[in-house]
Input
Amino acid sequence: MNLQDVQALDANDPLAHKRSEFLLPADTIYLDGNSLGCLTVAARDRAREVVEQQWGNSLIKSWNAHHWIDLPAHVGEKIAPLIGAAPAQTIACDSVSVNLFKLISAALTMQKGRTVVLSQQDNFPTDLYMVQGLSQLLGEGACELKLVSEENIEANLDESVALLLLTQVNFRTGRIHDMQKLNHLAHEKGVLVLWDLSHSAGVMPIQLDATQTDFAVGCGYKYLNGGPGAPAFVYVASRHMKAIKQPVCGWMGHKAPFHFDPQYVEADCIEKFLVGTPPVISMSVLDAALEIFEDISMQQVRDKSVALSELFLTLVSLQPELKELQLISPQDSRDRGSQLAFSHPHAYAICQALIEKNVIADFRAPNILRFGFSPLILRFADIWHSVEILAELMANETWRDEKFGRVGKVT
Ligand SMILES: *Cc1c(COP(=O)(O)O)cnc(C)c1O
Output
């Protein structure tokens, strides 16, 4: 394989034109869209318009004139088709962590007599922390976190479990769960299921309705490109909408917030998951960022994501300098999301040395080098160059320079 072969892949890429809808730093290969998505032209323009015109000129009139008040529902409906959700079940609000708190407590209330939240030992920590916090609040007898390894999830689905809490794509290894199968097995035992879609929404087809998913949350700033700290989203299947109660009763979740009634009466729709005033600037930016998905299918995005990661693996296997990188992601592309993770004792320094060469990957403790593939910005030639640069710095051992060992606050 040579660079021409790779450039031919770009010439035949049906998503190649999407790259020009982004504002990307020159000479940078960005393999970290799984941590913070890139800025679209539409998002940049909307940020200006919201700050300068809507806020600057129209001030408080904008709540109605520019539909600020409708943003959470409107953005939710834009995310819905990306996750296989029919209308009126998805809303944008708060962070993933806070939304997990709302849904985990709501699920426990719905499951009288069951107290166990079953999850995976290596789930994303915030997902586990939210259950630990709830246990503190409610007492162990009312909420108990049970952690098992990936292989033991099915065997632990029993009548004591109220909720199965899983992340669809593992943030370290990229391993993907079979959502359909796990929903089915859980439901057979009366267990509700809450999926965290942070590493899957916006990069692969997801079928929440068709797989009978109960609840889901997901992140706005990763593959949805909503910008740093963008609002997250909540999905609740319509069959649960009437029964579900979430405990963070804020005025925006009230049936009629502007009646200013002293008594809380929840909205009878997905809006009951709102709490306080939406972050209008951030949510407007997310709204604009989502336009990028309007004329493409998630299957197209998935196909390119698989092709990019397969190319990366092939090129790594052809470089003798890279044989010390141990793949910890599944070999089979059907079993993984849009990332590849490798372990190496000096993963941190290697990652820093790569960043200095303008190849942005990320490090996850204790020893993981992680590459994320954002199909809308990446060219196949970028994959070629990134592997060349990686092989070169491994061959020269550039990463041994002590400056690459310094650890910042965010890794
Ligand atoms: C990124 C991520 C989060 C982020 O949570 P916030 O509360 O929005 O910061 C949560 N869960 C998973 C699995 C993630 O990857």
